[in-house]
Each structure stands twice: as structure tokens, then as C-alpha cells.
Amino acid sequence: MNKYRTHNCFELSEKDAGEKVTLSGWLHRKRDHGNLLFIDLRDHFGLTQCVIENDNKFFSKLEKLRPESVITIEGKVTKRDKGTENTELSTGKIEVNILSVKILSESNDLPMPVFGEQDYPEDIRLKYRFLDLRREQMHKNIILRSKVISFIRQEMLKLGFLEYQTPILTSSSPEGARDFLVPSRLNPGKFYALPQAPQQFKQLIMVSGFDRYFQIAPCFRDEDARSDRSPGEFYQLDIEMSFVDQEDVFEVIENLMVNLFKNFSSKKIVHSKFPKIPYEEAMLKYGTDKPDLRNPLLISDITNIFERDDVKFDIFKKLVKSGSKVRCIITKNTKEKPRSFFDNIDKWAKEQGASGLAYFTIEKKENISAKGPVGKFFSEESLNEIMKITGAEIGDSIFLACGKNEDIENILSISRDKIGKELNLIDENQFAFCWIVDYPMYEIDNKSKKIIFSHNPFSMPQGDLDKLDFKDPLSIKAYQYDIVCNGVELSSGAIRNHLPNLMYKLFSIAGYDKKKVEEKFSGMLNALNYGAPPHGGIAPGIDRIVMLLAGEKNIREVTLFPMNQNAQDLMMNAPSKVTEEQLKEIGIKTDLKRKN
Fold first, then answer.
1. How far apart are the C-alpha atoms of 253 and 484, rounded to whole Å?
2. Euclidean distance between CA atoms 545 and 525, whole angstroms
3. How far apart are CA 282 and CA 289, in angstroms?
4. How far is CA 310 from the centre of its chain?
5. In sequence order, what are the residues at sequence separation of 6 or more whose Cβ sits closer than 8 angstroms to the Cβ of residue 86?
6. In angstroms, rounded to a whole number, what is the distance separating the alpha carbons of residues 89 and 5?
7. What distance in Å separates the CA atoms of residue 280 and residue 436, rounded to the nearest whole number?
8. How far apart (Å, rounded) are the C-alpha atoms in residues 473 and 470?
9. What is the per-residue pLDDT for 466?
10. Fewer CB within 10 Å: N-end or C-end of the chain?
């Protein structure tokens, strides 16, 4: 190839035996056998075993060289002896007998090893990310990410989309997460915001007469970190389409996701046409709008059972009278499970901040009865009614929770996941996609108790627009949808509101007067007044897609240079202080005193 290498460290095989080659890479690992020194040489492509005898003048130099030093080796390819071949390596049937060595760059003592996949503390991994990325699994994940993005671009072009770039410096948005603000030197006292998403711009692209837009878009949100969300920035496949309804968007995304996941994984895709689950049904059956459909466990509402006179479970009955709900999870044929299984689930639920999970098992000797700590409180008739509502059978067990809607949804959602894993019900070799649809347009904010948008404020409400009951805004549903896979929300999307007068009305319900709407969304409103097509879109998260395909639990494992939990880049020491001169130039003074 050039002076550094004739081949890469993945290429050589038996057919190259006898050939003189030049390889360059990192000294991955050494094994000293006294008269022989074996070296695994690694580059971006793979590994090649090299060997040097102790009578070679370069032997002592290599013997002293630290791992991760960069070297060039000249040598001769030979077949390995039978019994010494490594079937796990593509180059495992050959080795390179070293003739000469050139040291290109020596490494210091390593703060963490590159060889092996042992786990290390987050602060070490992130401070020395360039070393962490040399590790085999991390390297594979980042290569996968690149290939996924390239594949997506190709597929989008096939589907008739064109890629356009939207601004990074824009205006602040009153909705969503906190903005990252950028002061303007040329406009003192004013600020740009980094885009939380290209939402308004992609709609303006549709209004501008372009038909199908996509972009691998960087997004910036000043949010706390989670396992499936990086602090600071992330990337999404931003999509918008003109003259479409909800089903048109679904068709494009299902086509893309099926092709994408089939191309990069051997796991089974459960549904090629993704199930559509109304939001209210999802919250009832799964306790969440991000259900893992690989888990067959369902939640049932049995609140009315506790209004019966023949149910003596007084604690739950009192709570039901005060407005609480009772919901349960059925586990099939668990009558042989030891009591410790049920007690451990109850104990775990208490550790999550709930009051625990009551439980009993349905059995039949002479009559139907319930075995377990609370089983004695239920009559045969009430058990029959529970079996009718839930589909439970003899030998099934029931976990019950009682509380206010939000609390009970939360504990039963995570309990469903916990119990499903305990019973080995979740097939890790599946991808189970679904759509969550029919979101409410509005909800009540827990803190302010005021009406707010539940999802995207630019969404189109469902139904006949002339007959919408604006006096009962909580009854209005929107053309908003989420795509979920294996319990991970990949994206939210919506059919957009392209009618200015309707937008004023919808924002007024959420407390925005006409002046405020025009102030915040002047560019959008102005454009909509000059003829806007019906349009809609979605924006699946690139990071989460790659996380699923790589089988990782944390988004950090598929991101090149992530920040830590405190939104700090330990490698580059960001955020960092700036000089007084820089601050003066943009008209900013800092006050680091914070109110407790």
C-alpha cells in the first residue's frame, strides 16, 4: 500500500505464506517465551500474530516496549503449526516472522488496559476515551454506528427523500427542555439557542415547496443524563413529508426500520407491520407508553372487585372509596413457585418506593380459592369475577397494587419488567416494534395544575375541526405518535398543524395569548399564512437505534465522545472557564452565587 504497510492486520491468510510484508499498528499484547517473543499487532481492521527470535537485534527493543506503542514491522508470512492455529481470528492460520521493527510512537504506562473487555470506572473511561475506543467492543460499536448512518442515508434516498441542512444557531423555544444559549457579539444582550430539534425549520422546508426532507441532525438539550439519553447533544434521523397523513409516515418508517434491523442484526423482527396501540390502552395494559412487547405479561384493572361485599380486603377497599385504583399482573402457571419468589417481588417493589405488591395464587381443591397472604380475603365468587376480567386460570398467580393512577402505572410498569425477567419470559433475540397513537393534545401539569401541551404543540388535533369541543380540551386527541422497540422510545412524531387560526386557538388553551405566539413563532406563522401543505414527520434517535442493534444498555457505549452524568467532557475539560476579555466582548458578567 505505502511505506507503512503492504497489508492491514486483517488481510493475511495461508495464500500469503512466504510473502514479505509490512504491517503497522499498535502493540496489542506480548507473550514472552524466553527464546521467542509473540506480539499481537492491531490496527483498525484486526489482529495479526507476529513472532521474533531472541537472536534478532530488534528482540530487546520489542521486549522492553510498552503495550499500545505504535510500530511498523517487516517480516515474512508463515503458516502456523497444526494445533497452534487460532480459529477466532481471520489471520489465525498464519503468523509473521519479524525481520525488522521501527518504533513510530512509544506509549506511556496505561491508565487502563486496551486488551480485554473488563469494566472500568466511568471517569477513567471518559478521561481516556481514546484508549477506551481502542477496545474491541467499543471499536465495533462505533464502526456499526457509521455503517448504520450510511445505510439510513442510502435508504432515505431510495424512498425519494433529499437531505437538507438546517441552522445550528436559532431562536429559543418556549417548549421542551432547557436550551443551550449562545450570546451574540454583534447583537449585545441577545442570544441564539442551539436547536433542541430542527422542528420549525423542517416544517418551513415543507412550506417552501420541498416534498420529502431528511437530515442526520444534531440536537442540543440541557437535560440530565439517563442510560438512553446523552446529556447535552444527540443525533436523530429528522424526517418531514408533505401531503401525507399518519399512515403515510408509518409506512415509510416501518419500511426503513425493517430493512435497517434486518441488515444489521440476525434477531427476529416480531411484526413487519408494527402494532398500533392507543395511548390510553398502553397505560392500562403496560403502565407505560414505552412497552416492551417481548414481555407477554399484561396489567388488568380490577378496581370494581373491591366494591363487592364478599371481598374483605379492607385496606384496598378504603383506598378505592377515596379514589384509588386496583390493578394487577397475572403470571401464568406459577403455582409451583416457592413463596420466596413472591416475597422477593414484594420486597423489591417496596425498595422502589411503593407500598409493595400483594399477591395470591388461584387454586382448586373442592372449590376455587386463593393461596397466599391476602388470598383469604376473596370469596369464590369474587375470584371467578377476577378470572373473567383478567383471563387468569387455576394455577396462575396475581400481583396486586393499589394507588392513584400515576403511582400505580409506574410501579406495575417496572414490576411487569421485573417479573418478566425473573420468569425468563423475554426473548433477547427479538425486536418488537410498536406505534403508540392517539395521544391527548393536552394534560394537566402536576406542579402548576394548569393545562399544558402533552406532546408537540405544533400537532394537528384529530376529528372534525369545526366540531372540536375546545371547552373540554382534555378530551381532544392529536395526530401524535411514538415508535417504540423493546421498551425503548425511538422517536416521537406528528402530523403538523398547518392552519394559523387553529394554532392561535390551540395555544390559547395552553395559556399563550396571540401576541406571545407571534413573538415566539413569528417565522412559522408568517410562512403558514402564505399557503402551507398538510405535512408530518418523525425523528428516530440514531443513538438509540445503534444501542439496540449493538445490544448495549447504555447510550454511552455507542457514542464516540460522550459526556459524564454531570454533562462534563473529562477528556477535553469542558465546560471550562473563559477569559474576562471574552466575556467583555459579548457583554456578559458572571455571578456564580447560587440560591439554595
1. 12
2. 34
3. 6
4. 47
5. 49, 80, 92
6. 20
7. 9
8. 5
9. 85
10. C
Cα 308 to chain centroid distance, Å, stands at: 44
User: E strand or H helix at 150, and its extent?
Assistant: helix 136-158
Give pLDDT tens digits for 421-475: 999 999 999 999 999 999 999 999 888 889 999 888 889 999 988 888 888 999 9
Backbone φ and ψ of 585, nearest 5°:
-65, -30
For residue 123, give the C-alpha cell.
Answer: 471517569
CA distance 51 to 97: 5
Q: Is 481 helix (H, G, I), strand (E, B) or coil?
A: strand
Beta pairing class for 268-269 and 430-431: parallel
Q: What DSSP designation does 304 have?
A: G
DSSP state for residue 500 in the 8-state scheme: H
pLDDT digits (tens, 9 = 90+) for 462-519: 998 888 888 899 999 999 999 999 999 999 999 999 999 999 999 999 999 999 888 8
**β-bridge partners, 29:** 40
User: According to the model, what pLDDT value does residue 436 have?
Assistant: 98
Determine if the peptide bond prior to 338 is cis (ω within 30°). no
- Cα–Cα distances in Å, from 28 out to 54, 129, 135, 136, 279? 20, 17, 10, 11, 51
How do strand 276-278 and strand 433-437 relate by DSSP bridges? parallel
pTM for the complete prediction?
A: 0.91
Residue 395 has what pLDDT?
Answer: 96
Cα 416 to Cα 32, 72, 288, 408, 513: the distances in Å are: 53, 55, 10, 12, 43
Rounded Cα–Cα distance for residues 355 and 398 (Å): 16
Q: Whole-angstrom Cα distance, residue 474 to residue 279?
A: 14
In angstroms, the CA 287 to CA 389 distance is: 17
Query: Inter-axis angle of helices 405-422 and 339-351, to 10 degrees?
Result: 140
Which grid coordinates belong to 359? 399477591
- Compute and round to an integer the Cα radius of gyration of the chain: 30
- 411/356 Cα distance (integer angstroms): 9
Main-chain phi, psi angles of 467, to 5 degrees: -115, 10
Tell me: the pLDDT tens digits for 392-401?
Answer: 999 999 999 9
Residue 156, φ and ψ in degrees, nearest 5: -65, -40
Alpha helices in 391-528 (DSSP H): 405-422, 500-509, 514-520, 522-528
A 10 A CB-CB count for 425 gives: 15
Residue 174 confidence (pLDDT): 60
Task: State the cell numbers at 253.
Answer: 418508517
Q: How far is CA 417 from CA 68, 276, 290, 373, in A?
A: 42, 21, 11, 23
For residues 359-365, average pLDDT: 94
DSSP H stretches of helix in 339-398: 339-351, 380-390
Residue 377 makes CB contacts below 8 A (sequence gap 6+) with 311, 312, 313
Backbone angles phi, psi at 206, to 5 degrees: -65, -40
Nearest Cα neighbor of 485 from 299, 152, 254, 241 is: 254
Residue 1 has pLDDT above 80, yes or no: no
What would the grid cell of residue 567 be? 454533562
| Cα distances (Å, whole numbers) of residue 70 to 51, 58, 105, 571 | 16, 15, 5, 21
Handedness of CA 311, 312, 313, 318 (dihedral sign): positive
